[in-house]
């Protein structure tokens, strides 16, 4: 069996596994998946800046900005009050920092967003039992 054949089978398995996980996940777990995806992309983008991989860095940061937009879109501003608005504003700030990081190859800006997003992810994971079973847009944080 060729290396290409083995890799394509592994990629297909991972794709099915990922899609199965998403299909069976509750809304809280889906938000955690978004956090994990963006954090992974940001770590890779920071590494690309260090190694001079400009095109890959740009692609990873673009993907990260899109995922942060999804997180921001999951916030229920009507029920979440000022906490939800503050979180929305923080996501907007993160997007601006990542745009700056992309233009300036600023790994410090990527690290800053990694830290902020990591703290939000930890808080989201900690409140898991409280939000499970609620509707997909019922929680203020997301």
General description of the model:
By secondary structure, this protein is an all-alpha fold. It is built from 6 helices and no strands. The protein has helices spanning 3-24, 27-51, 54-73, 77-104, 107-126, 128-131. It is globular. Residues 15-19 and 135-139 have low confidence and may be disordered.
Quote the average pLDDT. Answer: 84
Which descriptor suits the 3D outline? globular
CATH structural fold name: Four Helix Bundle (Hemerythrin (Met), subunit A)
Instruction: Compute the CA-based radius of gyration.
Output: 17 Å
- In whole angstroms, how far apart are the ends? 44 Å
Count of discrete domains: 1
Question: Low-confidence stretches at least 5 residues in length (pLDDT < 50)?
Answer: 15-19, 135-139
Percent of sequence in beta strands: under 5%
Helix content: over 70%
Which CATH architecture is right?
A: Up-down Bundle
Number of helices: 6
Q: So, the CATH homologous superfamily?
A: Flagellar protein FliS
Q: In this structure, how is the largest beta sheet organized?
A: none
Structural class: mainly alpha
Q: How many strands in all?
A: 0
CATH class: Mainly Alpha
Order of helices and strands: HHHHHH
Put the structure in a nutshell:
With 142 residues, this protein is mostly helical. The protein has a single domain (26-131), classed as Up-down Bundle (Four Helix Bundle (Hemerythrin (Met), subunit A)), CATH 1.20.120.340. The protein has helices at 3-24, 27-51, 54-73, 77-104, 107-126, 128-131.
């Amino acid at each position: 069996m060729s290396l290409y054949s083995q890799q394509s089978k592994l990629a297909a398995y991972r794709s099915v596994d990922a899609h199965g996980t998403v299909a069976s996940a509750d809304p809280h777990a889906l938000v955690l998946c978004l956090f994990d995806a963006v954090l992974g992309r940001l770590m890779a983008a920071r590494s690309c800046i260090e190694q001079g991989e400009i095109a890959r860095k740009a692609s990873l940061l673009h993907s990260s900005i899109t995922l942060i937009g999804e997180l921001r879109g999951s916030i229920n501003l009507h029920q979440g009050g000022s906490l939800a608005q503050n979180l929305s504003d923080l996501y907007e700030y993160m997007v601006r920092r990542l745009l700056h990081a992309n233009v300036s190859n600023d790994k410090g800006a990527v690290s800053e967003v990694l830290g902020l997003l990591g703290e939000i992810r930890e808080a989201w994971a900690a409140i898991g039992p409280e939000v499970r079973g609620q509707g997909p847009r019922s929680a203020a944080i997301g």
